[in-house]
């Protein structure tokens, strides 16, 4: 998967096992997904902040067929929209249950970031 300079910091964080959020050094607002300019004040003075990694599952879906190009061999997998405790939302993969399925996930459930073996996407699982 090609790396764009705009997401390099995010990917570097994942490779180190950390979930990083883009933070504007001018207005101190957090952004997700990474941008070239802050959506709050338009500053291009942007950095990164480590997220606590906990949040609430807003939506979840399991993809069993018709994966996008480059992901066909990974089917099935689950995607969830997670609202992090820091206030931003992001799309991430959901770790499967012990049986390899995702039936135990439900909206409004607490989830936590789990470093993924692939290290190119955020992975979440059940909060302890």
UniProtKB/TrEMBL annotation:
Pfam family of the protein (one): OB_ChsH2_C
SUPFAM superfamilies per record: Nucleic acid-binding proteins (SSF50249)
Residue ranges of domain ChsH2 C-terminal OB-fold in the record: 48-111
Domain called ChsH2 rubredoxin-like zinc ribbon: residue spans: 11-46
Gene3D superfamilies: 6.10.30.10
Domain of life: Bacteria
Name this protein carries in UniProt: OB-fold domain-containing protein
Organism: Sphingomonas echinoides
């Amino acid at each position: 998967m090609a790396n764009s300079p705009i997401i390099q910091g995010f990917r570097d964080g994942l490779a180190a096992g950390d979930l990083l959020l883009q933070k504007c050094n001018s207005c101190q607002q957090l952004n997700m997904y990474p941008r070239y300019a802050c959506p709050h004040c338009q500053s291009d003075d942007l950095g990164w902040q480590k997220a606590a990694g906990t949040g609430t599952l807003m939506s979840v879906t399991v993809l069993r067929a018709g994966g996008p190009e480059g992901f066909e061999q990974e089917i099935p997998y689950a995607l969830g929209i997670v609202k992090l405790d820091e206030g931003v939302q992001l799309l991430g993969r959901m770790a499967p249950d012990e049986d390899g399925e995702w039936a135990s996930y439900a909206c409004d459930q607490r989830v936590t970031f789990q470093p993924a073996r692939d290290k190119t996407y955020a992975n979440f699982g059940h909060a302890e």
